[in-house]
Design goal:
The complex is a heterodimer. By secondary structure, chain A is an alpha/beta fold. Chain A contains nine helices and seven strands, in the order E-H-E-H-H-E-E-H-E-H-E-H-H-E-H-H. In chain A, a hairpin with a 2-residue loop joins strand 3 (67-68) and strand 4 (71-72). Chain B has a domain at 2-61 and 106-249 and 312-331. Chain B is built from 22 helices and no strands. Chain B is mainly α. In chain B, helix 5 crosses helix 15 (301-309). The longest helix of chain B has 36 residues, at 200-235. The two termini of chain B are 41 Å apart. The chains are: A alpha/beta, B mainly alpha.
């Protein structure tokens, strides 16, 4: 039985990824890192809260940044590096946690206690969720979904070997709208428990 | 028709290379090597007839030059075509020397010694570090200087309780200035010097003198910008501070002495190479051999291997591919067209041509890598000088000053800027475009203006 479990949740915007991550963390009684990670990065890096929030999961602007080996002037890159360092340090400390996005697939690859999930959803369900959560019209929700997914994809693909959403980069890709969120969580928790029993 | 096809293809390959470097999907040395291979195979191999292709290939690869006595010893001569093997060998040699100095703790010792000398007062420290940054960058690549200087600055900032950002920005700026003063400071100058047959002393008495004036102006500017803030932080310091002793930086005394000796020998060789007639390639080889010998005698085999591994082959391959890609533009006549265009828009006026070269280089270098830009413009200014009867020297100095100084304006303009801002960010002090440009754009305009005036007064 594994004593540590690390779970990353990649997600389409509006697919319920954050809610699923939260429910998994509660079921397994482990820590969740989503927006919560920002405070941790502020404390560990010395960066301001405003900077970390602004640069969180923000793709590098290729025209205003340059990279020389491991050095980059890009603030997006530097905040991302601090995020990856934090994720790695938490994994090394033996803590179990669920992490949403933040290229955890790349940071934690090779770790024997690690599972990667990708949550997708049907477009009409995503629109409904986003319109309700963000209190916007359905037309604006579509725009928001497209922009958020484009940004996440660019951020992910810059740092990760696997492409965002490509099933080959995940242990399980699941459509949250087929079974609904509670049943999806149930399936994922069963998968995790079976993995931990190995 | 075939000639135009070759020209168009060489332009497409070159522009594509630039775009791929910006997009950062692949490592830049792979990008330039692939571009170079495309030039050789497609532009030369397919678009040219066999006689022209053979000549173009030979001139671009330029391997025969390495086996001539003049490559290693003798009067400096021009060679604007193809792979600049002198640059590659010299840069490799300096990489080895710098690695030897770094492992011996030389740079850290120097920084801590200066800090102790000024009794850890922050404003004098700002001035000292600006001077050291500029002077070291005259002989050592500015990336290394900024890397070590920024690291020590952050350490001192934590101990002495001051905001390191003003100092980091000033050090970066002065490192680029220092690199512009000599032939070995910045890669564009190395390429310009070896391509056009200039010596170390040629640079010192031409760009060096202009840079000296620019440095005084820039140092005064940064002192005026930051002195109040830094002084206030020093006054607010809570109690006594304990700084590491300079001697603590020296991990191996014998290696330190050996590395320092090699550095001083390298400086002496560079300063006197016009008299000794040793080429920079020879100096690169001598410095490599001396560093390895010194390291072997004072440390262990593992350290020698580490020093050898410090040769950044990716950077050398980047240069190799770049020279071949520029060679494609040169052999197909594209660079002659650019030279003709510059001549036409300037109306043949020497003054206008100098201003265009200086400011075009400066503005371009603020946003794109100044190394490919310098490498591309060298044959252009050579053609302009030859066709218009203009003194090549003034165009060379304008190109050197433009490419080196213009890169100061933005965080991406020069490699030293990228490394300095990155080290600062990793240390917990991020610098964005706004924070950087607010101080460095006016300073860049200032030194570019000074350079323009100096070029006018001195040469036109």
């Amino acid at each position: 039985m594994k004593t540590q479990i690390l779970i990353s949740i990649g997600r389409e915007h509006g697919s319920g990824g954050h809610v699923i991550a939260q429910m998994i963390a509660e079921r397994l009684n482990i820590r969740l890192y989503d927006k919560e990670i920002l405070e941790e990065i502020v404390n560990s890096s010395g960066y301001s809260r405003e900077l970390v929030a602004k640069m969180d999961e923000k793709p590098v602007n290729l025209f205003s940044s340059r990279r020389i080996g491991g050095f980059s002037n890009s603030l997006e890159f530097n905040v991302a590096e601090k995020t990856f360092e934090f994720i790695q340090s938490q994994a090394d400390s033996g803590e179990s946690f669920v992490i949403v996005g933040r290229c955890a697939e790349q940071v934690l690859r090779g770790n024997p206690n690690y599972l990667r999930f990708f949550i997708r959803g049907e477009m009409h369900d995503k629109i409904r969720r986003v319109a309700a959560n963000d209190r916007v019209s359905e037309k604006d929700a579509v725009q928001l979904i497209r922009e958020t997914d484009r940004r996440r994809k660019a951020y992910h693909n810059y740092y990760c070997d696997c492409k965002w959403g490509d099933a080959r980069g995940y242990d399980l890709t699941v459509n949250s709208d087929r079974l609904g969120i509670p049943q999806t969580v149930e399936v994922l928790v069963q998968y995790i428990r079976a993995f931990m029993e190995q | 028709m075939i000639e135009m096809t070759a020209q168009i293809l060489s332009i497409i390959i070159f522009v594509g290379m630039f775009l791929m470097i910006i997009l950062d999907k692949f490592e830049r040395h792979m990008v330039t090597l692939v571009s170079g291979a495309l030039v050789l195979l497609v532009v030369f191999g397919v678009c040219m007839d066999s006689a022209d292709a053979g000549r173009a290939l030979q001139e671009t690869l330029n391997v025969h030059s390495v086996f001539t006595a003049g490559f290693w010893y003798g009067e400096s001569s021009e060679n604007t075509s193809g792979i600049n093997w002198s640059t590659l060998i010299f840069i490799a040699g300096m990489m080895v020397m710098v690695a030897g100095l770094g492992t011996a703790g030389f740079f850290r010792w120097l920084c801590l010694s200066l800090a102790k000398l000024v009794r850890y007062h922050v404003v004098p420290l700002l001035v000292c570090f600006m001077c050291m940054s500029a002077i070291l960058s005259m002989f050592i690549d500015s990336i290394t200087v900024v890397l070590f200087l920024t690291t020590v600055t952050l350490e001192l900032a934590r101990i002495l309780e001051f905001n390191p950002l003003p100092m980091v920005i000033s050090e970066i700026f002065c490192a680029n200035l220092g690199g512009a003063a000599t032939m070995c400071g910045d890669p564009p100058n190395i390429i310009i010097g070896t391509s056009l047959g200039y010596t170390f002393w040629d640079f010192i008495v031409n760009t060096g003198e202009i840079i000296a004036i620019c440095f005084v102006a820039a140092a005064l500017y940064f002192w005026l910008c930051f002195r109040k803030e830094l002084h206030a932080q020093e006054l607010a310091r809570s109690g006594d501070v304990v700084c590491p002793l300079p001697s603590s930086a020296i991990t191996n005394k014998k290696a330190f002495c050996g590395g320092t000796a090699v550095f001083l020998i390298a400086v002496a060789l560079l300063v006197t190479h016009a008299q000794t007639k040793l080429s920079v390639a020879s100096i690169g080889v001598i410095v490599t051999a001396l560093t390895l010998l010194s390291t072997a005698l004072t440390t262990d085999r593992k350290t020698v291997r580490e020093v050898l591994r410090s040769i950044d082959y990716k950077t050398l391959l980047f240069f190799l591919g770049l020279f071949v890609s520029v060679g494609g533009l040169e052999q197909t006549g594209v660079l002659d067209l650019i030279a003709g265009f510059i001549t036409r828009i300037s109306g043949g006026s020497v003054t206008a041509i100098v201003v265009i070269i200086l400011w075009l280089s400066g503005i371009a270098s603020a946003f794109i890598d100044n190394i490919p830009f310098a490498a591309t413009l060298i044959p252009v200014i050579h053609t302009i000088a030859a066709t218009q009867g203009i003194n090549l020297h003034v165009l060379a100095w304008a190109l050197s000053l433009g490419t080196d100084l213009g890169g100061n304006a933005t965080p991406i303009g020069a490699s030293a800027n990228v490394v300095g801002t990155s080290v600062s960010a990793k240390g917990g002090y991020p610098i964005g475009w706004g924070g950087y440009c607010r101080y460095c754009v006016p300073a860049t305009i200032l030194v570019m203006a000074i350079s323009t005036v100096c070029l006018f007064i001195r040469y036109l």
